[in-house]
Amino acid sequence: MSRDDLISTNAKIVNSVTRSILEHSKSPIIIVVSNPLDVMTYAAFKTAGLPATKVFGMAGILDTARYRAFLAEALQVSPKDIQAVLMGGHGDTMVPLPRYTTVAGIPVTELIDEARLSAIVERTKSGGGELVNLMGTSAWYAPGAAAAQMVEAIVKDENRIFPCCVNLSGQYGLHDTFVGIPVKLGKAGITEMIELKLNADEMKLLHDSSVAVKSVMDVYDGMGL
Ligand SMILES: NC(=O)c1ccc[n+]([C@@H]2O[C@H](COP(=O)([O-])OP(=O)(O)OC[C@H]3O[C@@H](n4cnc5c(N)ncnc54)[C@H](O)[C@@H]3O)[C@@H](O)[C@H]2O)c1
User: Does 175 qualify as catalytic in the annotation?
Assistant: First the structure.
């Protein structure tokens, strides 16, 4: 399927499901999973007309889980001990942040050399494709488990911090775009959007990622769906 066919087919489904949600629920919180994730989140957000704290996308937890798994394998440690955050779009413009990656509190940069770390970062970016090649689908256990974690954080009002795809309105100097950033999730949906003090290189990666997402948002807008 071409990118435009994918956008059109999936956006029609996402928009119709969003309209149905609104018919049946007065104050829903909508978590989008369909790909292309950032743009489908935008489609649901536009269709729903709800605040940004109520419509957001799942991708960052899955991408972070892949990153943690690859790191755990390389370092021969449990993925449970790896804390990490990935930002940006879902795909090859995602922004891993080694500066914010720790293994049981130890900065990962003290445990692995730069070349191995960047190979892991690259593998994470194409993690979806790797799975499709192996299994013929990118949707297996992890996306469901990741979405379930988000739902649980909301239902149980846990105030957990996860990277989620959100509509930015000035955070990180970005406006009217949808990229992954760390947010706090509780019973009201997103209760806080967290602004990390990114350095110039990290900020550039995030802005580049946002430009890539925006170009696909423009394609969606042009379809008039
Ligand atoms: N966000 C992520 O990190 C992530 C990860 C993996 C997959 N995905 C995406 O998740 C989506 C689903 O993947 P999958 O492998 O489960 O696909 P799938 O084809 O197995 O399942 C899609 C389901 O949607 C249903 N469906 C189709 N049209 C519908 C409609 N109009 N209303 C209600 N339901 C409808 C189908 O009956 C089917 O059960 C894809 O877009 C995939 O790319 C996202």
Answer: no
